Amino acid sequence: MKKTLVFGASLKPNRYSNLVVNRLLAHAIETEAFGLRAGEISGIQIKTNLEDFQNLDTITLYINPRRQPAYYDLIIGLGPRRVIFNPGTENPAFYSLLEQAEIKVEVACTLALLATDQY
C-alpha cells in the first residue's frame, strides 16, 4: 500500500504539487489531494477537509514551514507511515514531532523519487 496524500495540492498545472499528482497516477499509486481550494486534477478531487482521508501510507508536503504548525496535529492524527518534505517545506521542528509519533520523516523530492524508482 502506497496510498499517498498530496498535501497542498494546487489547481495550477505549473505547480509541483499538481505535477506530482499526475506522476503518482502515472505510477499507478493510489492518490488523494488536499488543498485550500476544492477542484480536480486528472480526476482526483482536491478536498479541503482533512477528515476525508484515512489509511494513508505517505503524505507528501507542498506547504511552506510557516503554514505547517496549523496542521501538525491533523497530519499526525492521520497516522501515515511517512511524511515527505519536498524542497521548500523543510521543518526540523515538525520532524521531531513526527518522529515522536513514530512517523518516518523523509526530506526529498517526490518527483525525483518517482523518476528514479525510489518511491
Structure keywords:
119 residues, alpha/beta, seven-stranded mixed beta sheet, 4 helices, 7 strands
What would you say about this model in short?
The chain has about 120 residues and is of the alpha/beta class.
Structural account:
This protein has 119 residues and is an alpha/beta fold. Helices cover 28% and strands 23% of the residues. It has four helices and seven strands; from the N terminus they run βαββββαβαβα. Strands 3-4-2-1-5-6-7 form a seven-stranded mixed β-sheet, with helices on both faces. Strand 1 (4-7), helix 1 (16-26) and strand 2 form a beta-alpha-beta unit. The longest helix is centred in the first third of the chain and has 11 residues, at 16-26. The radius of gyration is 13 Å and the shape is globular.
Ordered list of secondary-structure elements with their pairings:
Elements: E1 4-7, H1 16-26, E2 31-34, E3 39-41, E4 44-47, E5 58-61, H2 72-78, E6 82-85, H3 92-100, E7 104-107, H4 110-115
Parallel strand pairs: 1-2, 1-5, 2-4, 5-6, 6-7
Antiparallel strand pairs: 3-4
